[in-house]
Amino acid sequence: MTLKLVAWIAAALVSTCVAVEAQTYPTREIRAVVGLPAGSGGDVVARYYADKLSSLAGKPVIVENRPGMILSIGADAVAKAPPDGHTILITSVTSSHAANVFNFKRLPYDPIKDFTPVAMLQKSYFMLMVRPEAPWKNVAELTEAMKAKGEKASYGYGAPPALASSELYKARKGLKAVGIPYKTSMASLPEMFSGELDFQFIDSTAGTPLRQSGKLRALAVSAGQRVPGVDVPTMAEAAGIPEFDIAPVWGVLLPAGTPAPIVSKLEAWFAEISKMEATRQYIANTHAAPFPGNAKALADFIPKEIKKWEELARLAKIEPQ
User: Fold this and answer.
1) Which pLDDT tens digit goes with each residue over 189-222?
2) Does the pLDDT of residue 10 top 90, yes or no?
3) Minimal CB count within 10 Å: which of 52, 110, 128, 200?
4) Please, are residues 309 and 103 in contact by the beta-carbon 8 Å criterion?
5) What does the alpha-carbon distance between residue 30 and residue 289 come to, in Å, rounded to a whole number?
6) SS (H, E, C) the chain
7) How far is CA 6 from CA 2, 9, 11, 16, 181, in A?
8) Other beta carbons less than 10 A from residue 290's beta carbon
9) Which residue has the higher pLDDT, 68 or 87?
10) Does 11 score more than 70 pLDDT?
11) Average pLDDT over the chain, rounded to an integer
12) By C-alpha distance, which of 66, 100, 94, 59 is closest to 80?
């Protein structure tokens, strides 16, 4: 038997095993890792899609919260997991795979080489929020008040888009407010309610119920265009910052090296979830925007998003930690 024939037989066996593996996948529960704490806005996103995936896959999909390093600990856990499709990452790709390249001097993973893209899910935005008792009723009034307070002004942030939004606002308006980091925007609420924090950009999933209940007031949104159903101006309109367009995109990724048939199976399931009426309603309720895309679309998106955040980090004068 020639070496060429041996190699051909080995390749055929590998191909057969992969095909069989894909046909029987999943063979056990799937871990859906999210790099945020339970109860956070991102956790709500992950749990919605995990629940729908479980119905289609016929196996439990268990959400595993791995908070820390602004979504990077969760991403790193998936990057180092076995590439068999039983560990997936549901993440704000904008944060874990683009913004964090510039938020940290060194990430424990390569955002492109260490992952296999699966699908894009939705686009969200952040609200510039203040306590309802605050005397400022719009961004112009907030800006004047923050200029007067100087370095005594403060804001909170729990995610890269919130930090970038705040720093871009500061840089363009000449503010000196001090940023206070939190694990999530929800963790900062006691300080927001008490007035210890002057303002904060809060993601729409968490911010929408706070606004609707009157617990916080929204002055503007971080998206570049008006959000349907939300009577709140954009930062471009309210603050006169035309380049202000920060709208995180959520996606699904697997460890690098996951067999293509398994990727295709998950890709098809998430495409089906994106078309569900329940998903349309869920997105409408959280005032997010549908942003479905296949594996190739996500693979093309990540490098472009990294390039965009390179410019945002420069404009917002973000120093890597």
Assistant:
1) 999 999 999 999 999 888 989 999 999 999 999 9
2) no
3) 110
4) no
5) 26
6) CCHHHHHHHHHHHHHHHHHHHHHHCCCCCEEEEECCCCCCHHHHHHHHHHHHHHHHHCCCEEEEECCCCCCHHHHHHHHCCCCCCCEEEEEEHHHHHHHHHHHCCCCCCCCCCCEEEEEEEEECCEEEEECCCCCCCCHHHHHHHHHHHHHHCEEEECCHHHHHHHHHHHHHHCCCCEEEECCCCHHHHHHHHHCCCCEEEEEHHHHHHHHHCCCCEEEEECCCCCCCCCCCCEHHHHHCCCCCCCCCEEEEEEECCCCHHHHHHHHHHHHHHHHCHHHHHHHHHCCCEEEEECHHHHHHHHHHHHHHHHHHHHHCCCCCC
7) 6, 5, 9, 15, 58
8) 14
9) 87
10) no
11) 92
12) 66
Cβ atoms of residues 119 and 292 within 8 Å: yes
Q: Model confidence over 226-242: pLDDT tens digits?
A: 888 889 999 999 999 99
pLDDT > 70 fraction of the chain, expressed in percent and rounded: 93
The average pLDDT across 33-45 equals: 91
State the Cα–Cα distance between residues 290 and 151, nearest whole angstrom. 39
Do residues 33 and 88 lie in contact, with contact meaning Cβ atoms separated by under 8 Å? yes
Q: Between the CA of residue 145 and those of 11, 176, 242, what are the distances in Å?
A: 68, 11, 22
CA–CA separation, 288 and 207 (whole Å): 11
Distance CA 128, CA 43 (A): 21
304 vs 307: CA distance, rounded Å: 5
Give strand pairing partners of 123. 249, 289
What's the predicted TM-score (pTM) here? 0.84
Q: Which two tokens stand for residue 156?
A: 């909170």
Q: Would you give the distance in Å from CA 266 to the centre of its chain?
A: 19
Domains, the chain, ordered by start = 3-124+248-315 (3.40.190.150), 126-239 (3.40.190.10)
Across the range 1-16, mean pLDDT stands at 49
